[in-house]
Amino acid sequence: MEKFKAGIVQMDSGPNVEDNMRAVREYTAYAAAEGVQFLMFPETVDYIGRQMGKHGERIPGYVTRTFAGLARQHGIYLHCGSITEAAPGGRPFNTTLLFAPDGRIKAFYRKLHLFDVNIDGGPSYGESAEIAPGADIALASVPFASLGFSICYDLRFPELFRLQAVNGAEVFCVAANFTKETGQRHWETLLKARAVENTCYVLAAGQCGQKEAFEAYGHSMAVDPFGEILAEAGEMPEVLIVELDGQRLAQARASLPCLKGRRTDVYQLEGHTISY
Predict the structure, then answer these.
(1) pLDDT at 54
(2) Element (H, E) at 93
(3) pLDDT of residue 91 exceeding 60
(4) Within 3-131, where are the H helices?
(5) Which among 100, 162, 201, 207 would be 20 to 30 A from 7, CA to CA?
């Protein structure tokens, strides 16, 4: 991994796609002027409204063409966060795309774990009623790092991140729309845990503001492989600019060799007796 400058956009996306994309253009121009090589947005950046499952577009479409054009215009790697991808004859997907500086799609990931929960003192939400789950883990190698992708509720499933790490990921890219209730309790803890247990950087872009179903938490952040917070947003739209250092990553992996020390020879229950 090389040293590089990354941007994290915290947005308050709403039901007007054009308003959301206008904000995307403005944030991208600002971050590019600050010299970022990689910029990422939050989950469902294009639309958040009453009928998420009925809103979506095919790829390519207006939203993805907009992101592709911005990547070309500014010469950066541009992570769209996620969009609602229309699927013929069924529920749409919650989909991440990474665009290369030439505008081509470099990586493609569909959210694996869907947010079906009943939160004490908070909202109930059944994402699977509207959205279909993906079926593949995604990594992308870019000139300065190897990137792993996840979306929101995926953050609670450490297996996904460990598989990315042992397959070369150095930076986890988390696009999210966490509720305020769960965010206050778990957001920072989960991000730090995924960083520390895998000795990886974490870049987490979140939604903020009042949505149709709940209030979004915000607090987008960057965490280094030792669990130190490099930058954190508040509860309003914001752009974070951070520098990620390959030497810091190498230092973490040399001093805390979690990935090398795994006991894959005993990571199974079959053939073993467990006594208490």
Answers:
(1) 76
(2) strand 93-99
(3) yes
(4) 17-33, 62-74
(5) 162
Here the tokens at position 235 are: 């509860």
The mean pLDDT of 154-173, rounded to a whole number, is 98
For tokens 């179903």, name the residue: 213
CATH number for the segment(s) 4-255: 3.60.110.10
Map out the domains of the chain as residue ranges: 4-255
Give CA–CA dist 49/186, Å, rounded: 25
pLDDT tens per residue, range 93-151 = 999 999 999 999 999 999 999 988 776 666 667 788 889 999 999 999 999 999 999 99
Q: Give SS3 for 6.
A: strand
Contacts of 173 (CB under 8 A, 6+ apart): 40, 79, 96, 147, 148, 149, 150, 203, 205
Q: Are 204 and 222 in contact (CB under 8 A)?
A: yes
Amino acid sitting at position 11 = M
Beta strands in 63-189 (DSSP E): 77-79, 83-85, 93-99, 105-110, 116-118, 124-126, 139-142, 145-151, 171-176
Q: Is 2 assigned a catalytic role? A: no
**Which pLDDT band holds residue 55 (cuts at 50, 70, 90)?**
confident
Please pick, among 111, 180, 192, 211, the residue that the annotation labels catalytic: 111
Give residue-wise pLDDT tens across range 26-44: 999 999 999 999 999 999 9
For residue 111, indicate whether it is catalytic: yes
Residue 270: how many other CB atoms lie within 10 Å: 4
Omega within 30 of 0 (cis) for the link into 60: yes
Catalytic residue chosen out of the listed positions 80, 85, 152, 238 = 152
260 flagged as catalytic: no
Catalytic residue, chosen from 43, 170, 232, 238, is 43
CB atoms under 10 Å from CB of 61, counted, come to 14
Residue 234: other Cβ atoms inside 10 A: 11
